[in-house]
Write a structure and sequence with these properties.
Strand order of the largest sheet of chain A: 1-3-2
Protein name (chains A, B): Winged helix-turn-helix transcriptional regulator
Shape of chain A: elongated
Number of domains of chain A: 2
Order of helices and strands of chain A: HHEHHEEH
CATH superfamily of the largest domain in chain A: Winged helix-like DNA-binding domain superfamily/Winged helix DNA-binding domain
CATH class of the largest domain in chain A: Mainly Alpha
Oligomer: homodimer
Helix content of chain A: 55-70%
InterPro entries (chains A, B): ArsR-like_HTH (IPR011991), HTH_ArsR_DNA-bd_dom (IPR001845), WH-like_DNA-bd_sf (IPR036388), WH_DNA-bd_sf (IPR036390)
Organism (chains A, B): Steroidobacter gossypii
Structural class of chain A: mainly alpha
CATH architecture of the largest domain in chain A: Orthogonal Bundle
Pfam families (chains A, B): HTH_20
Number of helices of chain A: 5
């Protein structure tokens, strides 16, 4: 059960990142919290489009928001990228092990490779 | 120009990762190279579906393939996750700086916070 939820969370997270405009908003938010209009301006996007992108980022767990009066302010979620880092690190270990094995193989048997047809 | 290409590459990469079946294939490939049918079996997917997923992963620069005779073998690309790691690390630095500033702010002025209405 937990695993299915985790998988769906990763789906939403990676989907949220697969868009240049959304990544542009994250670049802005990496400098500090911002309102919807502050996020819209440099990207030259219409507000409804920005709101939509922000919803996708929020569903992906990458940003959080807070409404004060009529202004909603967005910020990077404190652990925004931890799940991705963990996921990537695990796969990289697999990749490293493959290269270690390849190196051992080459170190041991480099001279004795037979060419089979 | 370079930047647009990079952005499109990241789009394709994150899109490729936003799917549980595709991530399942990467988990298998993290153990070593595999053929299409070896990848299909544990996932209980039809071969055409697997072929389609693998094409998305290859377009995303995450896997590479080689055809020998009638068998196409897939492997994780040697630098499969480097672009993602670089991208995430950069944004995390921004996030860390925000927390540093917040800590400094709290350390300096914790007693003097005024409640404004």
């Amino acid at each position: 059960m937990q695993r299915i939820e985790d998988a769906e969370r990763l789906d939403r997270m990676f989907h949220a990142l697969a868009d240049q405009s959304r990544r542009g908003m994250l670049d802005r938010l990496a400098k500090g919290p911002a309102s919807v209009s502050e996020l819209a301006e440099p990207l030259e996007l219409a507000l409804p489009s920005v709101v939509k992108h922000l919803a996708v980022l929020e569903q992906g767990g990458i940003v959080i928001s807070r409404k004060e009066g009529r202004v909603r302010t967005y910020a990077l979620a404190p652990k925004a990228f931890d799940a991705i880092e963990t996921w990537v690190a695990k796969r990289k270990r697999g990749l490293d092990r493959q290269f270690d094995r390849l190196e051992q193989f080459l170190a041991k048997g480099a001279g004795s490779t037979g060419e089979s047809k």
